[in-house]
Design a protein that fits this description.
The protein is mostly beta strands. The protein has a single domain, classed as Thrombin, subunit H, CATH 2.40.10.270. It has one helix and ten strands. It has a six-stranded antiparallel barrel with strand order 3-6-7-10-9-8. A two-stranded antiparallel sheet has the order 1-2. A two-stranded antiparallel sheet has the order 4-5. The longest helix has 7 residues. The radius of gyration is 16 Å and the shape is globular. The chain starts with a strand and ends with a strand.
Length: 124
Amino acid sequence: MGLIAPLTSIALRPHLVRVETRGEPVKDREGGYTEHFVPLDPPTLLVRIEPSAGQDLQHAAEGTVVATITHTVTGPHHPGLTTEAQLLFDDEAAGVTRTFRVTGIVTPSERRTESVLLCVETTT
């Protein structure tokens, strides 16, 4: 069996995602700014994407219900992953690219080997 880290099977992280963070704002023609994202280094990660259940949401924020969390993403720790980041998953079965905005991060045991991301799936 292949392993990603000493204790993590590759089978537990079946989703390849591109990871990006907010870049510097770019002025638009109307005097405002446009949001854009730039790839992190490394630009891809193998993760596990799971829909969040109501009970998961209560535990994720230490007893506070967070209604906007739609998915929990578990993967390797990446220092560039913050609440300014997003994950892009090419869902070949549906023929679309799904976007997950990071709204919170939990690092189990504070060892910086794995991160659990609380995400909101957005549509454009």
